[in-house]
């Protein structure tokens, strides 16, 4: 009402624009003046004019109305595509390419990087429609009803400045960092294997540790870092190796190799909601393939682990091209 009177400089013409009678317009403006404690219009003349206070308030009123008018547009954008929160690294180039030809709810889905701890609250509040949580090694199985384990996993690789490129694989025994036959007590001669904080569960999961120990890895080699930054810094400063995802290695320009004889992979949990049953949507091969590409995952059924070889080569002595 204030905006209309200010623009027309007339209560009558403002009433015509708003399809209201003049008295409600007068009362509405009077209520606003009472609320603000100032007079907004000079009514002493034939034409209604803004006071100094009215001129000061008008820009803010117009901005408030603009934002109110934009709510419908914002709501429309919100409905354009399913919003999926993702705990895990996203590669923008891969994300754009993978989502180009898929649809959820008739629109291209959108993916939002999100902390794992916030996913459930965001879905509960309706801020996101579904979630993908890439869980660290040794993490507990889901207990919440809406969380479900998928058969997608994200493999960990071995990253090091000593490698060149990303081709080839490395055996877990190569991480012992010493030629065969050397004593197990000489930890100083052994490879330091940096582990990201989210994968600290590795140290408490016998199923994951046993294959490593069987190949000569000493528990003292495994060092859980305080942060990803700390881990990468240690790799660059000391030439150690880092267990991480391929996306993490690429993000820090670290050459990496896959592990050929042990499986160290993060489990992917799918979180659905009343507006989106993401696990059901992933029954579509196109959607499943796109999501796997976006988070750098593979089907657990397609194991990359090969039989253990007896041959051992120190990667530092025999780097692969």
TrEMBL record:
Keywords: DNA-binding, Transcription, Transcription regulation. The keyword Ribosomal protein does not apply. It comes from Brevibacterium metallidurans. Belongs to the LysR transcriptional regulatory family. Pfam families: HTH_1. PROSITE patterns: HTH_LYSR. InterPro entries: LysR_HTH_N, WH-like_DNA-bd_sf, WH_DNA-bd_sf. Residues 1-51 form the HTH lysR-type domain. PANTHER family: HTH-TYPE TRANSCRIPTIONAL REGULATOR CYNR, TRANSCRIPTIONAL DUAL REGULATOR HCAR-RELATED. The lineage of its organism: Bacteria, Bacillati, Actinomycetota, Actinomycetes, Micrococcales. This is HTH lysR-type domain-containing protein.
